């Protein structure tokens, strides 16, 4: 199945089952935030389209934002815990061993920015799922990680969904 067919199917499902939109957004954001799974799920494109549907299909905005934020935060948390559990040896295993330069860049990013890298990394495609995994591998503290994780998930969900929701509402006037 190609990406366009997946996007079309997902959007049609959301249009037909509006009440499920917050859960769908949460599931997509979760998949987008899991370290390896994010490579296979084109969630960002679908979430942007869902934002447009929110504006044009009479779907409540804030529950969808909250669903996406919870999904993103849970995905990053799982990636962090996997990295914490696997430890530094994870860098020698698939998929990290296939991308040593990307792993090194993400590690340097975390070294330079510390816990702020978790919040900043959420807004950069390839880093979105890699930074939490490496944060766990490098042993960043859980509480500061979770604070940055949750705060950035809320901002990310709003930034991703609001333009489509607001633009279509504005165009309908």
The level of helicity is: over 70%
Written as H for each helix and E for each strand, in order along the chain, the element string is HHHHHHHH
Mind summarizing the main beta sheet? none
Structural class: mainly alpha
Number of helices: 8
- Count of all domains: 1
* Poorly predicted ranges: none
Q: How much is the radius of gyration in Å?
A: 17 Å
Report the average pLDDT across residues.
Answer: 87
Shape by Cα distribution: elongated
How many strands appear in the DSSP assignment? 0
Q: Beta-strand level of the residues, as a percent range?
A: under 5%
Termini separation: 37 Å
Structure, explained:
The protein has 173 residues and is mainly alpha-helical. It has one domain (3-172). 76% of the residues lie in helices and 0% in strands. It has eight helices and no strands. Helix 1 runs parallel beside helix 3. The relative contact order is 0.16.
List the helices and strands and how they pair.
Blueprint: H1 3-16, H2 21-33, H3 43-56, H4 61-86, H5 100-113, H6 116-121, H7 125-137, H8 142-172
Helix pairs in contact: 1-3, 2-3, 2-4, 3-8, 4-7, 4-8, 5-7
Keywords:
8 helices, elongated, 173 residues, 76% helix, mainly alpha
Question: Concise description?
Answer:
This protein has one domain. The chain is 76% helix and 0% strand. It is built from eight helices and no strands.
